[in-house]
Design brief:
Elements: H1 4-19, E1 38-46, H2 49-63, E2 69-73, E3 88-94, H3 97-105, H4 107-119, E4 120-128
Antiparallel strand pairs: 1-3, 1-4, 2-3
């Protein structure tokens, strides 16, 4: 026999299916929604190699306190469709979008950001990932 929690979950899933809902989150004492990571993504075309060096040497120390870690740091991109990235690609993973935003807006990062901006051309994004 199903307990009350299972009956409620079953009813919610049935209703979601009937209403055409794309997703439903079940809240129960034993269930939790996994946190979604976030990614800082940058395309960077270097114009001043000497100017970017201090930024490159210091940037990890600014994001590590926020749990950030390099996933990609200038690896070769193999373009399959469309235009390739400008210059180098960088991807930094964070445990949440809030941590990624906090890092980007932190005093430590804002202090070195002008070094990157003066040293080349960038496109940067913070993007929400899927829950793990």
């Amino acid at each position: 026999m199903m307990n009350e929690r299972h009956l409620l979950l079953s009813a919610c899933l049935t209703m979601a299916g009937m209403l055409g809902a794309g997703a439903i989150t079940a809240h129960a004492d034993t269930m939790s929604t996994p946190a979604a990571p976030a990614y800082y993504v940058a395309e960077f075309e270097v114009a001043d190699r000497d100017g970017i060096r201090p930024y490159s040497e210091r940037v990890a120390a600014t994001f590590e306190p926020f749990g950030g870690r390099f996933i990609v740091r200038g690896g070769q991109a193999e373009v399959k469709e469309g235009d390739g990235p400008i210059g180098r690609l960088v991807v930094i993973e964070f445990d949440s979008i809030d941590k990624a935003r906090a890092w980007y807006n932190s005093a430590a990062y804002q202090e070195i950001l002008p070094m990157r901006q003066r040293s080349g051309r960038s496109n940067t994004y913070i993007v929400q990932g899927l829950p793990k």
